[in-house]
Design a protein that fits this description.
heterotetramer; A mainly alpha; B alpha+beta; C alpha/beta; D mainly alpha; A: mainly alpha; B: eleven-stranded mixed beta sheet; four-stranded antiparallel beta sheet; 30% helix
Chain lengths: 300, 536, 336, 309
């Protein structure tokens, strides 16, 4: 027993050491990737903006405050991005909107991660009928185009920020199920997993301790890139009028509102669109960087 | 028109403008004077030798959803029925008077209870073989009793008696001053008994109108082809197409690009493009679509008249017009529609005044922040109005949550007997019969000993006093007395505030300059039967 | 060198240097080597992994990937033809025709989406301008030559075992009867029994076609079996070269000695294995002096100061080791 | 091989049943009883009940589902609540538009992406590579409906080259195809590049070069065919997405495709149309995926071997 314990400690120690050095290695790789660094800086700035916006701006006054007399004013020194149909300052709204888009993107991906990894890992580990059922469900979900799926879910649950997150999350679950299952299948028969099973570790613990960490890198890459597509998906739903309820300054719904003014007041569609693009772009750049850093094949 | 270069097209435009000023008898926008009913009538001088453009394409905002006149009452469908079907009588857009439709003439008994219609003979339905007879009228009105859309219009009908193929008598339970108005409604279009019983789905789509449906691709377009055998002479245009463009800006661009000939309801913000385009013309008339805040008076908080008055004072109608219609609208303070008989011009007004709103709120006994209401909206301009209301209500301590919904979901929530809503930005489009308006918007009827709200009574009023006033006005034969009765009803409503009227806006239509023959109605249910472009 | 010998020269390399410029720094893989090879002879290029053997072979084929690889050379001639200045399209005529290469891992050396017959026929089509039918026919011949039934020409690589694949690779390399064959560890990835078969096959074919060959390997047994001459590489340099006899029986360089010592001794199974201590120096950061000095048992201060140059010990035998400045010096290894 | 195809087609059945059930369940939860939006304001309770029966909305979810499947097996997708038209007919009316858009989009995207991706991979880290990768990233990060709006703004409003919407003539398909195709092209370019980079590192290319195969043939013959496999995967997945309706582009450009049909039907709570259109779309998607898998087998003999096993 004693020996076993020391052994395990040693194992843990090497694992820790290994982990840290792997992380450092990733960071070293990442730092060298110009795109990833630009992406990282951008996304950090956007996150900071999102976090600080309630301090910088007075929601009632700056963000949803209406000034009907000042409506539809083009960009100027007072209103950097102009004003919208209710005379609200588009700059403030775009700034504040980062909160919604990021929150929706991140939460949606978490929903997808939670469902996807649980189901996928379980399917890969348990196998048999259960796996079959899960994979068929996965087929069902992935054969319905995800936008339509999300639209159906939102209209079923009703319009709210949370439901939007849920809908986007559910609609993007299938890929995570696949990734998790594939990763589990790869390591399922590895010797250390066999060993863990041999010493009587419960299944959930084996999945959690031994299997998941091994597919973590893939999942991290997927997740980073998916946050971007989740933000776009959420904006799409908002654009179709199924998003965050008014008067919240969600970028997609700002675009939707600006659509009918596109001929004369194109700035109304320009800035929220740019904001979405910039956010997703920075996430993609960062995600690409992380993937390259994690993927030893791409190292040169 | 294919634009090769900017300069060339600019040059062409200039030439065109010069030519059109020189040659054509210019009909500038100002030339269109609305008739008594508010309609703009583009008179078509009948000319048997004239040649007309084969197809007129109308860019519409709303899809035709059904071809059965008794299965819907949306404007889009009504315009289709106007082409394909006929009603016994119709309203002269110039005078507002009832004129013959499918019926050639009619007589009313002295007690005002029996209407006898004389029908033409030799009329065929547009399938080309089925003859029209008085039995079809009986069938249509009987069928209407079972229709959830049309039944209210025939609720007073107790007997339909086919005298012969060309004569039919209809007996009412009580005198109804507006019976003929109701019969002019497109929902009362005459169907063929033979066709409907043979094919329940497609039978009702065939009428005796000037056009027949040619092809229907829901969500895309519907096309109509002229009825060559129409008894009054065929229509000038062979094909009419309603093409759906959900986006107002896209619709207008299609008009400017020449893809369509008529653009219904362009965005108010874009009207300048029509005025600046020498090929186009803007038709503009005040509409009779009354926008209002429907208040479910049975819900806690909203059952308190002070809260409702606070809502009325806090409603910034001018801002709503500014935001919703780019300033092009008229504040509405009445409880019936504009142009309707009995409209009280000097009704007491709840001016936008947040101080007064606060006073009323204080009288209600509720505390600030205690009340949260949900308001349902479907269209963008309604959402914008709700946003304005939301900002003002937050000033007086009422939270407003805006529920944006699809039109179908909103309608089904309104119609659901559970009445699970509090506020709704809604509209009332009927501008013909005052009784029909007040009875449906505010009236209730006795069922099994309890008052049950009428179908379109969105404020869920069950007020016996009000019902009595409505019934009294309906049967009053003296016009000026009747008017006074309606004034009284409006004053009564103004005290209990079951709705907050907001505004009426304008009907805008962009058309190609050469278009004529159409009747542009303030109800937005336009008459395209004679629309045409004469070839030069 | 006599005229005769010069005409006989298949390969003549002077001062070949290859470096890879990567993000981690400049990897100096080959640092100035000279090599010559005469007709029908076989040279064994020996050294541990990372010594620069494969890079040398790739440099001869002019297949060092650029970027990041940069090749510098004073002279690189195949049968008197200057390879260095050839444009890419001319090089294509040399590759597979005059020089061929057999790669280390037969598992990955074949394109999985083409039949083996097509892959053999391809070089025939390119170099001998055969019609695709004739090329297929010849490919079948080649398969039979390496001991595979010709019917299997229409099968895909995944249907072959490792040894069979290596035979296919050999068939591809020999299809156009090249003057020089570069074999890069042709047997490393194979089972021992298969290794012998493959080696024997190569020996046979070499004899049959009069091909010269460079055998790259770290397997000394394999060298003893096939090679006439041996060059030992360490950290991108040749540290000892000579005939098989010279290097095996009159070993001079401490590194070569280390290589032999790390082989298990069948005659004295109790003798402890003596692996070379330490690791190869980081090729991005080579020491100023002898690269082997940090691991050398005979190291002296002089070794650390300057790079030792190759010196001739006999007509055929040369070594790069500063210790031989002292005429008394000898290494421990004695040949019995 | 045929057995494999048959097996795949049989697997389609549970998926279709599942899709139908999923949509049924979702629409059942959806706010707003469709009966009340179809019935008018004045409908009496009796009329409501009659209508409910007529619309097939009586009974529990499971009962309705079983009824629906029964009809589905007969090839009957039901009739629309709103237009009373046969759902199959309406769907088939829309399908050609969607297929047209999808096909053009895919052709344009593939035509752009594969050469770009190959060039980028072959000249890794060159200016060309960086430029095309930055462009691809931007293309991928742009919400397509926004791109559509910008295209309308520039090419329709400013330049007047293309119509802003509608489905007549070739000119009207150009902007929607670009809108949908951009992100697809971006994705495909990236996939082609990374797949190509993967393949370019493979030993068998060195073998080919050592054989004297010209660089052009090394890339176009030896590398591309191997690199195609992951590209085909993405192609398959994306084709389904385009096929299922680039809903947003269809909305922005008033393109009467299947995607808009579904969105409008969801708006109108027109359950038969929603379910029918999605079931049909699923079937198409699955069939396209099967075709993609067969193309795989054509490209990669190893996969073919698996199928025939």
């Amino acid at each position: 027993m004693e020996i076993n314990q020391t052994n395990r400690n040693q194992q843990r120690a090497t694992k820790l050491y290994k982990k840290r050095s792997a992380l450092e290695d990733v960071w070293r790789q990442l730092r060298r990737n110009k795109g990833a660094i630009i992406g990282l800086i951008l996304i950090v700035v956007i996150i900071l903006v999102a976090i600080l916006s309630p301090i910088l701006l007075d929601y009632d006054k700056d963000v949803i405050g209406q000034h009907i007399k000042q409506r539809l004013k083009p960009p100027s020194a007072d209103h950097w991005f102009g004003t919208d149909e209710l005379g609200r300052d588009i700059f403030s709204r775009v700034i504040y909107g980062a909160r919604y888009s990021l929150a929706v993107g991140v939460v949606a991906v978490f929903v997808a991660l939670a469902i996807g990894i649980t189901l996928g890992a379980a399917a890969g580990y348990i196998g048999g009928k259960f796996e079959n059922v899960v994979m068929r469900i996965c087929d069902i979900f992935s054969s319905i185009p995800s936008v339509l799926m999300a639209i159906a879910v939102v209209s079923a649950l009703g319009k709210s920020t949370f439901n939007l997150m849920l809908a986007v999350g559910i609609a993007s679950t299938a890929p995570f199920i696949r990734v998790a299952r594939a990763a589990v299948l790869v390591v399922h028969d590895e010797e250390y997993v066999e060993a863990a099973r041999a010493i009587g570790m419960p299944d959930w613990k084996i999945i959690w301790v031994h299997i998941l960490p091994n597919c973590l890198s893939q999942i991290i890459v997927q997740a980073t890139l998916r946050v971007g597509s989740a933000i776009i998906a959420a904006a799409q739903l908002s654009f179709l009028g199924l998003g965050v309820p008014a008067p919240a300054p969600e970028w997609g719904s700002m675009l939707s509102a600006g659509r009918q003014y596109i001929r004369d007041y194109s700035y109304m569609t320009l800035f929220p669109g740019l904001a979405i693009m910039l956010t997703v772009l920075s996430l993609n750049m960062l995600g690409d960087g992380i993937r390259d850093a994690l993927d030893p094949k791409l190292k040169r | 028109m294919k634009k090769h270069t900017k300069i060339l097209s600019l040059g062409l435009c200039i030439v065109f403008v010069v030519l059109s000023i020189a040659i054509s008898p210019v009909s500038a926008e100002g030339d269109f004077v609305p008739s008594k009913t508010g309609a703009i009538i583009q008179e078509l001088v009948a000319d048997p030798n004239a040649v007309y453009q084969d197809t007129i394409t109308i860019g519409v905002a709303n899809d035709v959803t059904t071809l059965d006149p008794q299965a819907s009452n949306t404007d889009a469908n009504m315009m289709a029925f106007e082409l394909t079907h006929e009603t016994l009588v119709q309203i002269d857009p110039a005078t507002g008077e009832i004129v013959p439709g499918l019926a050639e003439s009619w007589e009313v008994s002295e007690d005002g209870l029996i209407f006898t219609f004389a029908l033409p003979s030799g009329v065929l339905f547009t399938d080309g073989v089925t003859p029209f007879t008085a039995n079809d009228v009986k069938y249509t009105y009987t069928r209407a009793k079972d229709s959830s859309f049309a039944s209210a219009k025939v609720s007073d009908v107790v007997d339909i008696n086919v005298i012969d193929d060309a004569h039919i008598a209809i007996t009412l339970s009580r005198p109804n001053q507006e019976f003929l108005l109701l019969m002019a409604h497109k929902g009362m279009s005459i169907l063929s008994e033979a066709l409907c019983t043979a094919d329940e789905t497609n039978g009702p789509t065939i009428g005796t109108g000037m056009f027949a449906v040619e092809e229907w691709a829901p969500g895309d377009f519907i096309s109509f082809v002229r009825n060559e055998n129409y008894r009054g002479g065929k229509a000038p245009t062979r094909h009419i197409v309603f093409k759906l463009f959900k986006e107002a800006s896209t619709r207008l661009i299609a008009l400017q690009a020449g893809e369509i000939d008529v653009c219904i309801d362009p965005s108010t913000i874009d009207l300048g493009y029509i005025q600046d385009d020498s090929n186009l013309q803007l038709i503009q008339t005040q509409n009779v679509v009354m926008l209002y805040v429907a208040i479910n008076t049975t819900k806690p908080g909203l059952d308190n008249v002070h809260i409702r008055k606070a809502l009325a004072y806090a409603t910034d109608k001018l801002s709503m017009i500014e935001v919703g219609f780019d300033g092009k609208g008229t504040v509405h303070n009445n409880y019936i529609n504009v142009n309707q008989f009995g409209l009280k011009k000097d009704i007491a007004v709840y001016e936008y005044n947040l101080e007064k709103a606060k006073e009323e709120f204080a009288l209600s006994g509720y505390k600030e922040g205690e009340l949260t209401f949900h308001v349902m909206t479907d269209k963008e301009y309604k959402k914008n109005a709700a946003l304005v209301l939301q900002a003002d209500l937050s000033e007086i301590g009422i939270n407003l949550v805006i529920d944006e919904m699809e039109t179908a979901a909103l309608k089904s929530t309104l119609n659901d007997p559970a009445l699970n809503y509090e506020l709704c930005i809604y509209q009332w489009t009927d501008a013909d019969g005052t009784d029909f308006t007040v009875r449906n918007m505010y009236g209730s009827s006795m069922k099994d000993g309890v008052l049950v709200k009428n179908g379109s009574n969105r404020c869920v009023l069950t007020d016996a006093t009000l019902n009595g006033m409505i019934d009294a006005a309906l049967v009053e034969i003296d016009t000026s007395k009747r008017e006074q009765l309606y004034f009284a009803i409006e004053d009564y409503l103004n005290e209990i505030v079951p709705i907050v009227p907001i505004c009426t806006s304008y009907i805008n239509i962009g058309i190609k300059k050469d278009i004529t023959g159409a009747v542009w109605r303030p109800t937005a249910k336009h008459d395209y039967r004679f629309i045409c472009i004469p070839e030069k | 060198m006599t005229n005769q010998e010069a005409n006989d020269l298949i390969l003549d390399i002077k001062n070949l240097k290859v470096r890879y410029e990567t993000q981690d720094g400049i990897v100096r893989a080959v640092n100035g080597i000279d090599l010559t090879l005469r007709k029908k002879r076989t040279l064994g290029l020996v050294g541990e992994t990372g010594a620069g053997k494969t890079t040398t072979a790739l440099a001869i084929m002019r297949l060092v990937p650029d970027p990041p690889g940069i090749v510098e050379c004073d002279k690189l001639e195949i049968s008197g033809q200057d390879i260095l200045s050839l444009p890419e399209n001319k090089l294509e005529h040399v590759r597979g025709n005059d020089i061929s290469m057999i790669f280390q891992d037969p598992m990955t050396a074949l394109n999985p989406v083409f039949t083996v017959g097509d892959q053999i026929a391809e070089s025939l089509e390119i170099h001998e301008h055969l019609s695709s039918k004739d090329a297929k026919e010849r490919a079948g011949d080649m398969l039979e030559l390496v001991g595979i039934p010709r019917e299997r020409a229409n099968e895909y690589p995944h249907q072959f075992s490792g040894g069979m694949k290596q035979r296919v690779v050999i068939a591809i390399a020999l299809a156009c009867n090249p003057q020089l064959l570069l074999a890069d560890e042709p047997t490393t990835a194979l089972d021992v029994t298969i290794q012998a078969q493959v080696l024997e096959l190569m020996n046979e074919l070499k004899e049959k076609y009069d091909t010269s060959m460079i055998m790259i390997t770290h397997d000394l047994g394999c060298v003893a079996e096939v090679c006439d001459e041996v060059a030992v590489m360490y950290a991108g340099r040749i540290v000892e070269e000579g005939t098989l006899e010279d290097v095996f029986n009159r070993t001079l360089h401490p590194y070569t000695e280390g290589l032999f010592n790390s082989l298990p001794n069948i005659k004295d199974r109790k003798a402890k294995l003596k692996p070379i201590k330490g690791l190869m120096p980081d090729p991005t950061n080579l020491p100023v002096g002898c690269s082997f000095a940090p691991r050398c048992n005979y190291v002296s201060d002089a070794c650390l100061k300057a790079q030792p140059q190759l010196r001739s010990i006999s007509q055929t035998h040369r070594v790069a080791c500063t210790a031989y400045d002292n005429p008394e010096f000898h290494i421990e290894r004695r040949i019995l | 091989m045929y057995r494999y195809i048959l097996k795949r087609l049989l697997m389609l059945i549970p998926v279709l049943l599942g899709v139908a059930f999923l949509i049924f369940a979702i629409m059942d939860v959806a706010a707003g009883d469709p009966v009340y939006s179809v019935a008018g304001a004045d409908a009496t309770p009796e009329q409501i009940e009659a209508l409910r029966e007529k619309m097939g909305l009586n009974g529990s979810l499971i009962e309705r589902y079983i009824r629906y499947i029964g009809n589905l097996l007969k090839g009957d997708l039901g009739t629309s609540y709103i237009s009373k038209l046969d759902v199959m007919k309406v769907y088939l009316q829309r399908l050609p538009n969607t297929l047209k858009l999808a096909t053009l989009t895919m052709i344009v995207a593939v035509g752009m992406a594969i050469p770009l991706g190959i060039t980028a991979a072959v000249h890794q880290n060159s200016i060309r590579d960086t430029t095309s990768m930055v462009l691809a990233l931007i293309g991928l990060s742009m919400p397509n409906f926004w791109l559509g709006l910008l295209l309308i703004l520039f090419f329709s409003l400013k330049l007047g080259w293309f119509p802003t919407g509608g489905s007549e003539g070739f000119r009207s398909i150009v902007l929607p195809a670009i809108t949908v195709g951009t992100s697809l092209a971006a994705l495909l370019t990236r996939t082609t590049r990374s797949s190509m980079l993967d393949v370019l590192r493979q030993d068998y290319l060195r073998t080919a070069r050592a054989k004297g195969v010209s660089e052009r043939n090394v890339i176009q013959k030896h590398a591309l065919r191997n690199a195609l496999i992951p590209i085909i995967t993405i192609f398959g997945v994306q084709f389904s997405n385009v096929l299922g309706g680039s809903v947003l582009a269809e909305t922005v450009f008033a393109w009467p495709g299947v995607g808009r049909l579904v969105v409008d039907a969801i708006d109108q709570r027109d359950i038969p149309t929603v379910t029918g259109a999605l079931v049909m779309t699923t079937m198409l998607v699955t069939i396209v995926n099967l075709l993609v898998d067969l193309v795989y087998a054509f490209v990669d003999p190893r996969i073919k071997a698996q199928y025939t096993k």
